[in-house]
Amino acid sequence: MDTGITREQYKQLQAILWEFRKVELPDTRRRDEKLQRLTGLTPDLIDCCVNNCMAFTGPHLELTRCKECNELRYSDNDWPRNNFPYLPVTTILQHTYGNPARAKLLETYPKPFLDQPLNTPPEKISDWWSGKRFRELRMQGYFTSSTDIAFQIQIDGFQVTKRNQHSTTPVILLNLNLPPEIRYRKQNIICPFIIPGPSKYKNLDSFLQPLVDELKILGSPHGINTYSAYQGSNFRLRAYAVLFSGDGPAISEAIGMKAPGNAKKPCRFCEVEATQAPNNHYYIPHPKNPSATSRPLRLRKNLRQTIELATASPSIAGNKEGMASLIFKARLITIRDNKKNCPPRPTNPPLPSQLRY
After folding, report:
1. What's the pTM?
2. Mean pLDDT in each 10-residue stretch from start to end of the chain (357 residues)?
3. What ranges do the domains of the chain cover?
């Protein structure tokens, strides 16, 4: 039920209607509890900063204060001052495969692409499955079954109010196993969590940590034991993040690029070099006669190689390549370039229920 008002306003409306008209509106908490019982989808509550600077996950799991603004994590009664719900992707996929028609669609659409020869490019590029990256991943041992899921991660913040006073950022998964004509419909989009507002986050990596941890489990060779209503039997569910999309700032933050003014190479598309000013800020000079003093810009040939460099030598990557941190793209194997430089795939990964945030 989308009322378009806050919960507090809804409670006030409940009280007014009951007092003057004896009309009882349904309680949103009971509705949510009933919905969770019917679907089996129960979100995990992830602690985050009261100012939405960062989430207390991964290396920040045990912190009691925010690293950005130093605000306390817990209130006086030891309750988290702020949190956000995270809906496990594994549970969503397992419920999806419980529907025979949907399970059949997820398995049959990628199958023709899996039957393509690895060393021969297709005559027509109709989808991501027709591209070079899919064939590379197959050669590296990924996508061995038509039940393997390919995800595109999409992130794009927006302002909730017209006055630009409340920023929030949904994190969306697009299931590439669905045909393109239905892939982008609202009912087929997975939104495991929304980075809360009103202030914009300062540590994106900490909010993405639960999703990264779960995708690493789903991307392991053993996957997760799941029942397919289409096959009528169990199989090993595996899912990989293969694409990342969003607006310019979101992609730069997710990649881990430094902000303009702080990096010698601030652009993720080309290798333009900035000049350091006396105040230690970097800027791109604009000569009066570009043809006489400037050189043709070179494009970054392979951004994945830059991410590999950030993994191997953070200091070099930070100073020369404009990388700010070893963010989630450096930890999702299928978005990286070279398997021989990747950490070994875990043979006995933890179950999603064993993850701690």
Report:
1. 0.73
2. 64 82 74 72 90 92 92 92 93 92 93 86 85 89 92 84 77 94 92 88 89 91 92 93 80 67 66 74 66 55 61 53 50 45 42 42
3. 7-39
